[in-house]
Design brief:
The complex is a heterotrimer of chains A (about 260), B (about 280) and C (about 260).
Chain A (H helix, E strand, L loop, with lengths): L1 H23 L3 H4 L2 H12 L8 H36 L5 H16 L2 H12 L3 H25 L4 H8 L4 H35 L6 H11 L3 H29 L3
Helix pairs in contact in A: 4-5, 4-7, 4-9, 4-10, 4-11, 5-7, 6-7, 7-9, 8-9, 9-10, 9-11, 10-11
Chain B lengths: L10 H22 L9 H12 L8 H36 L16 H19 L2 H12 L3 H26 L3 H8 L4 H35 L6 H11 L3 H29 L1
Helix pairs in contact in B: 3-4, 3-6, 3-8, 3-9, 4-6, 5-6, 6-8, 7-8, 8-9, 8-10, 9-10
Chain C lengths: L2 E9 L5 E10 L4 E5 L6 H8 L7 E6 L9 H8 L2 E4 L11 H6 L8 H9 L4 H10 L15 H15 L3 E5 L7 H18 L2 E5 L3 H7 L2 E6 L2 E7 L5 H8 L22
Parallel strand pairs in C: 3-7, 3-8, 5-6, 6-7
Antiparallel strand pairs in C: 1-2, 1-4, 8-9
Classes of the chains: A mainly alpha (about 260), B mainly alpha (about 280), C alpha/beta (about 260).
Chain lengths: ~260, ~280, ~260
């Protein structure tokens, strides 16, 4: 019975894939044909000589710092907001607040960062401020849910012991729950930072500053040499943040 | 002065860390031009409020709903087709990049030989490169190369997710107990046969699980790529936002949330079946 | 009367009757040991005394008040005057010993001082003095997860002592220590209790230790008080009756939990 179920599932998946290509009017074999490959190869060749002039490098450097600041601050704000929201969302303040907090967190994370960025650009104007706020809002939803799950799974004995000796609920949380919880929270936050540095690069596409904004402009003006410098900068930033976050995890989250 | 007996050894590192944080925070805030207060500025609140007020009721005229349905199907199709192509690229790449297929390492206590390493590291490097460049950048490049529309989206997902899937598959092969496959290789089996009989049965569940999870991510990514012209719901939101048609934006956002929930549900059901 | 129990019953949430018809009077400054076979209800009795568990029936008076008639805030203030030494010290593994010990006074400090203590310990000298009496002052800045079971128990004791309660309840406080260390630690507890005029109630599974250090012995069996005598009056016959037919095999543990799925990206 199970084999039959699995077989139908595999068939359904194959049908879905074929239907997708048909719906889009794409022929996967055409994608590999000489003409379009040649076209793409010519376009790719224009990227092979990046622009390393001093003026452009200076601008790229500044935009990189802007993007880094956007991602770091956005993630930091999100972590603080997430911790504040995770406490009710884990049921610590009663179930009506729990429902409300979970709803808010789900709403924040359902909307993708780019949509938040467009909304923030609308509200706060062009520039990295919109990007930081957009990242903070979306990441707060994601981290809030992860924090709440971690909070629910943490052993309650230390906090109960503090309450038993006369401490109030906040002290029980700080002395009993938090010492065990914060490495996990830090791990989630660092992992989100790695994701956000990629996001921060592209939020500029909708006007939220940083490398993304410069990239969008260069590509639109067909300045591929400048664009490839920017892509290189993005790559370096991503690899750098990945390395830094990995080091921080090694240092502080030795479980 | 505090004697050594009364000094907390953790005090100095904590102080330094706090100082570092403050030192980085100030220029960071200046660079990011952080100003959450702007959201509460009265002029801004009025225009944002007006925009948000248009969210209710969301647009629900027949033509628009048909358009929305089309766009949703397009998004799903882009994600599925893109994942399929990504798999086509990722499966061979992962086999090339994984140490689990190393014949040299099949001997007891041996390490992979240099010939294999010369193949593995470049392939890994390419996979890391493919996944480090954000998929939307790929989408933008493909839009310029092959024109607006869903083709660019499919190609962008194919490339980025090939990188992600390839690297993670290679790591999964290596995280499984290597002994069955190594024993087969020592008995004379070829690399692929040893892999298929020794590693694949143990890894299959985790591979499927991760692939389905990535498909769900691909659905979300397809929407985002629409912003640069790669079709689907994202392109629709972009158009409606430019025209400040808040009712349409609301409908599209709702559709998107439902789509994400559906993908999440489907992904969980499939993962439940496979593991 | 520091502690008074009248016809106290305790039924756990899973239906198990832990205490039946317990009558107990303990005066201020007394030192009492509770002995009995495993599962007899020693821990339950101590938890009832510590106001951790509410009795299902009967009257309970601790330090002159009925804790379960009080408002929750008043009960918290009462709890700050009661120190419970847990059998398995509930200390977060990553917390440092100094913070764990100083946490004893959380019921008495204000919020500001408590939070400040997390950043920098406010009374290193006090913590060190207490740990020195327990032979642990070299571990002052170590993390709790770096300690052995016996060392962890001593940290739990130090925390309760730092709290300076009027009533000290100890649930098998020396179970993880070797006999010499156990005797030394118990002597210390008793000495502290008589110096500070603190009421001490301890449950012990080593009868010899109980008889050696405590003037009053209470035997508990099947949730009832079997006897309540001075140490001199406890005969080997009474001990045999107390521990007769004690269950030797522990209850089977539940099946292991399934491993959760972790996303890998």
């Amino acid at each position: 019975m199970r084999r039959l179920g699995n077989a139908t599932l595999v068939l359904a998946i194959i049908l879905a894939v074929v239907a997708s290509f048909a719906y889009l009017g794409l022929n996967p074999f055409n994608l590999g044909d000489a003409d379009s490959l040649g076209h793409m190869a010519r376009y790719a060749a224009r990227f092979l000589s990046p622009d390393f002039t001093a003026a452009h490098l200076w601008a790229v450097g500044h935009a990189s710092l802007e993007t880094l600041a956007m991602s770091a601050l956005g993630t930091l704000l999100a972590a603080i907001a997430a911790l504040l929201l995770a406490i009710p969302a884990a049921g610590r303040l009663g179930w009506p607040l729990q429902g409300l907090a979970k709803l808010l967190l789900n709403a924040l994370r359902a909307v993708p960062e780019l949509v938040w960025a467009v909304l923030m650009v609308l509200a706060a104007g062009l520039g990295p401020n919109a990007g930081t706020l957009a990242l903070a809002l979306h990441t707060a939803g994601v981290l809030g849910r992860l924090f709440a799950e971690a909070l629910e799974n943490t052993p309650p004995e230390p906090a109960n012991a503090i309450r038993l000796q006369g401490g109030n609920a906040w002290l029980a949380f700080c002395y009993g729950t938090l010492p065990n919880l914060w490495p996990q929270l830090l791990a989630y936050t660092l992992y989100r930072w790695e994701n956000n540095i990629r996001m921060a690069s592209i939020l500029g596409f909708v006007g939220a500053g940083g490398l993304g904004q410069m990239l969008y402009v260069s590509l639109s003006l067909f300045q591929e040499a400048r664009a490839s410098t920017l892509i290189l900068a993005m790559l370096l930033l991503v690899l750098g943040v990945d390395a830094l976050s990995g080091w921080m995890r090694q240092r502080w989250i030795r479980l | 002065m505090l004697s050594r007996h009364h000094r907390d050894p953790a005090a100095l590192p904590r102080l330094l860390l706090a100082a570092l944080a403050v030192l980085l925070l100030w220029p960071g805030i200046r660079l990011a031009e952080l100003n959450p207060g702007v959201l509460f500025d009265p002029a801004v609140s009025r225009s944002t409020g007006a925009f948000l007020a248009g969210f209710w009721p969301p647009a629900h005229d027949r033509d628009f709903l048909a358009l929305l349905w089309d766009a949703t199907l397009q998004t799903l199709a882009i994600a599925t087709a893109g994942m399929f192509l990504a798999l086509v690229l990722a499966v061979p790449a992962s086999l090339l990049a994984s140490r689990a297929l190393s014949l040299s390492a099949a001997s007891i206590g041996a390490r992979p030989g240099w010939a294999g390493t010369c193949v593995r590291w470049p392939v890994r490097g390419v996979l890391i490169f493919l996944r480090s460049v954000p998929e939307i950048v790929w989408a933008l490049l493909f839009v310029r190369a092959v024109g607006l529309g869903p083709t660019a989206g499919v190609l962008a997902i194919a490339i980025t997710y090939a990188g992600m899937l390839g690297k993670v598959y290679a790591e999964i092969y290596e995280s499984i107990d290597q002994r069955p496959a190594q024993a087969l290789m020592r008995a004379g089996a070829g690399r692929l046969a040893a892999f298929a009989y020794g590693t694949l049965p143990a890894a299959a569940a985790e591979l499927m699980s991760y692939t389905v999870y990535r498909w769900e991510c691909a659905v979300r990514a397809s929407v985002v790529m629409g912003f640069v012209g790669a079709g689907g719901l994202g392109q629709q939101i972009d158009l409606s936002m430019r025209m400040f048609a808040s009712a349409e934006v609301a409908s599209i956002l709702l559709t998107f949330i439902v789509l994400v929930l559906f993908a999440d549900l489907l992904s969980r059901v499939l993962r439940g079946r496979f593991t | 009367m520091t502690l008074r129990l009248t016809a106290v019953d305790l039924r756990h949430r899973n239906g198990v009757q832990a205490l039946r018809d317990v009558h107990l009077n303990i005066a201020a400054g007394e030192r009492v040991a509770i002995i009995g076979p495993s599962g007899a209800g020693k821990s339950s009795l101590l938890n009832v005394l510590a106001t951790a568990l509410q009795p299902s029936a009967g009257e309970l008076a601790v330090l002159g008040v009925q804790p379960w008639q009080l408002s929750s805030r008043a009960r918290q203030r009462l709890r700050a005057r009661i120190g419970l030494i847990h059998q398995a010290p509930p200390l977060p593994p990553r917390q440092r010993v100094v913070t764990a010990v100083l946490a004893g006074k959380l019921g008495q400090w204000g919020l500001g001082k408590s939070l400040l203590n997390l950043l920098h310990p406010v009374d290193i000298a006090g913590a060190r003095a207490l740990l020195a009496r327990l032979d642990l002052d070299d571990k002052l800045f170590a993390q709790c997860q770096q300690l052995s079971g016996g060392q962890l128990q001593r940290v739990g004791i130090a925390r309760a002592l730092y709290q300076q309660p009027e009533l000290l309840l100890a649930d098998e406080p020396v179970s993880a220590m070797d006999p010499r260390l156990a005797r030394h630690t118990l002597d210390l507890l008793c000495q502290h209790a008589s110096e500070q005029r603190v009421t001490l109630v301890a449950s012990l599974h080593t009868v010899e230790l109980a008889l050696a250090c405590f003037p009053r012995i209470i035997g508990v069996r099947d949730g009832r008080i079997a006897f309540d005598l001075s140490a001199a009056e406890v005969t080997p016959q009474r001990l045999d009756d107390l521990y007769a037919n004690a269950q030797l095999s522990p209850a089977p543990t539940s099946a292991d939990t399934a491993t959760p799925w972790l996303p890998r990206c």
